[in-house]
User: Fold these one by one.
Assistant:
Number 1:
Amino acid sequence: MKTGHTHLFIPGPTNVPDEVRRAMNVGQEDMRAPDFGELTLGLFSDLKRVMRTTTGEVFIFPGSGTAAWEAAITNTLNPGDKVLMARFGQFSTLWVEMAERFGLDVEVIDVAWGAGVPVAEFERRLGADTKDEIKAVFVTHNETATGVTSDVAAVRRALDSCFHDALLFVDGVSSIASIDFRMDDWGVDLAVTGSQKGLMCPAGLGILAVSQKAMEVSRHSTMRRAYFEFMDMVKLNADGYFPYTPPTPLLRGLRAALDRLFREGLDEVIARHARIAEGVRRGVHAWGLDLVAEHPSFYSDTVSAIRTPEDVDARDVLRIAYDEMNTSFGSGLARLSGKVFRIGHLGDFNEGMALTALSIVEMSLVRAGARIQLGAGVAAAQRHFTGVATANPVLRVAAE
Ligand SMILES: *Cc1c(COP(=O)(O)O)cnc(C)c1O
């Protein structure tokens, strides 16, 4: 029998704070009530604050992040349009596949899994595109499969330096509300996220922010869409209503989650993610293991993808943690299966949770046959969190 707390250290869905869970425990409500708009209009404006946009429109679709991808593509592009994408992990791969299913002419750049968006190569292709055939550039801001964060601002600079007019699509599903994201400053046209990662809610909402430029483009784009049609949303959202039944308990949960985010402060939330992620990485390095992310400039502050030693199957580590320690870590996706496990450290997360995660990884690794020193990763993270560099200050004081 499993007892005690079930630990969820996957990069989404993330842990839902109690106050968010309580806020969702409500009776069903009238989504056409005269005062219903007070809830939704507040959500739209606060999601804009999270995305750091004053001019964009925010849509909330019942669905997950993948639904928001579909809404973004179908509303702004035309069948056969050329788009520029890079593939360096499972999520960027799925995005390419969706674009292909919709009949886009996808120019894909394959990059090592562990690297990020190839900005220089993007710039070269945009510069060579003198006829403006490329209609959109896609960036997976945080590749959740590999724990790699890419430089969206640099992609904007590449577009601008080529005077290129392509739309900039950003998948921010595992970055928005946890890693710095600036829609207006970076000139992002379509920013995608979901409710179950940085926003600390259950899955069920696909959230999309759209620039005025993309809104204008959507008026003339010819790709077929029905459920995700922006204009249906725009008409009813203006007063806070929806063209179909919204999942009202989730909206109540999102309200509580946004209140919590702003109570802590968006900058503080981002700084907390950076601090905790660095502690986790120090733990990984203390074990002598490698991150999938090839270079510190790519390190993700929301998820760490860790390679097991050659002779240790990452699936054993995950199974031992789950069966024996009531703990879930993220698996290695696609080509990383068996070689990699992931620690999600985003959303409602703190230092104690990071230390618990590191401790359970250590036990699971040792049980799976890895030769690492128990406690080494935990101690390295503790040193980072306390700012005390000495391995054991108490013993040192005793010796003096
Ligand atoms: C989780 C995730 C998705 C998929 O989102 P769903 O909500 O599962 O549809 C897409 N992109 C990234 C980067 C993700 O982390």
Number 2:
Amino acid sequence: MTRAIVDLDAIGHNTRLLHRAAAGARLMAVVKANGFGHGSVEVARAALASGASWLGVTSLPEAMELRAAGIRAPILMWLFAPDDILETALLSDIDLSVSAVRTLESLARAAGRLGRPAAVHLKADTGLSRGGATADDWPHLLTVAAKLRAAGLITVRGVWSHLANAEHPDDPGLHRQLIAFGHARAEAAAAGFPGPLTHLANSAATLHLPQTRFDLVRPGIAVYGVEPVPGRSFGLRPAMTLESTVILTKRVGPGTGVSYGHDHVVTRETTLALVPAGYADGVPRRVAGRAEVAIHGRRVPIVGRIAMDQVVVDVGDLPVRAGDRVVLFGPGDEGEPTVADWARWAETNPHEILTGVGPRVRRCHRGFSAGSTISTRSPSRPDECAAMTPS
Ligand SMILES: *Cc1c(COP(=O)(O)O)cnc(C)c1O
């Protein structure tokens, strides 16, 4: 009933736009968290056909889902514990991010058992204080990497880091991170790793910080069409439309309390419409009292508490009937709210809204190669996507 329509042509458009902006650098489409909720395999295929040559994920299951779908492009994965079973990753040609000697040694043991080297991207912490080796630990990481490379156990394919505040070009922290990255790269070159892929830029940096582009850029949110730099528009096209269906309407009078706790009480005669999308589907509870949806191109408010599976919309005197389409968010072309609106209402970032779209929401892919992906992904439920949405 509640569906996420994913426009793969928008993914293609955004990828091409980012690739052009990267001005010669290669492009890694970041498809972690199920492609920010859009379906990682479908997004990966559309991005790879539109200028991306790498894919980025965090976890092994994410990487393996891409390989299982037959995607052969290089994949970098960056979150795992040093003692995780990494043979699977090596056998599947997954590049691994390494921030610590312990991880390198664990990988080298796995590589020794398999008789093939592990491809690694050495990660420097240049100021984000999440992954990466600190400036103090970086030289030792390089020394051990050089030794393991000489033993044929690893190949160093990349040197990389991640920015803390790429949206703000005047941030002094950004300047400090670029300087720290310069040092890390110089030390890597001196340690015998002069030529691996250098990469730093996320979406915002790719689009407005040319000095961060290096050999490869790693956009995530912009691939999905959300503008990453506050106050600027680069012409990205939002890929996801979250839509549902009115399943019941009723006429009520003043004084009617709506939903749990009766936080909302109707003040005039009106029509309430029930929409089967709740917080389990990605409608955050904390948007109550703020969020709107679009029905027939008109904005109408969600009223009362948001339940796990449903919300109530006050449609006033509009001629809304059960079966009518409800748009929670979309590109915004027809007056509907956007992901950015929802992020503002929920006091979060667009990333959390997109990745919060729940697992029971059917993803319906349109555009680029969508026909084949629908039939291969869910042969048992073909109609849910075929029905609805004039597109
Ligand atoms: C998520 C992520 C990205 C993409 O970031 P966006 O801001 O969504 O473009 C890039 N690099 C790393 C390491 C990430 O974790």
